[in-house]
Give the backbone structure.
Amino acid sequence: MNSHFNFLAPFYDRVISFSRLEQTLRVLDLPHPGSLLDAGGGTGRVAAALRPHIGFLAVADVSRAMLVQARQKDLSAASAETERLPFADGFFDRVLMVDALHHVSDRTATVRELYRVLNPGGRLVIEEPDLRTWPVKLIALAEKLALMRSHFLAPQQIAALFPPDAKIEIEAEENTAWIIAQKVTDQTP
Ligand SMILES: C[S@@+](CC[C@H](N)C(=O)[O-])C[C@H]1O[C@@H](n2cnc3c(N)ncnc32)[C@H](O)[C@@H]1O
């Protein structure tokens, strides 16, 4: 999988554009003066668009070639597996993962780590193709046949990976779902 994205990295941004800025800002509750982690953030395609709306931003990804592209955008980029993030508990006010959860080897460990590095009161958003829709079911099948080792989960299955104290909402539009998790504190409305 890593070699797959290493191969795609130089062309990735030209093939896949980012058209959902307004929706992403809304589900992440941005702008915010604090910090954001884009986990599995690849070339920084999404992070670059979010940069004006957050104080500090970092991309973490396992593919070094994807990270080369992110660094060319002057983004802070960490080589890391999302199953073992090199950040302290509660380090980020916002955590985002776009189109990457179905690519990681261990989805349970990844969600646990994303939640661990989220600041109490913070917000974590996982954007995934919505497996409840037929086009995504077909993509999941095609990726399986192409031996891509991706593993899609339905939004409710992703929500179930969070600890019970997380306050979860699910939004969906067309073939995309957003799983929005808040780390609740006494001050959370
Ligand atoms: C489809 S790309 C999406 C990249 C970016 N989020 C975007 O929307 O442009 C999936 C990314 O997940 C990364 N990835 C896959 N497994 C990973 C893991 N275990 N830890 C960190 N990154 C991983 C890949 O290297 C790739 O950059």
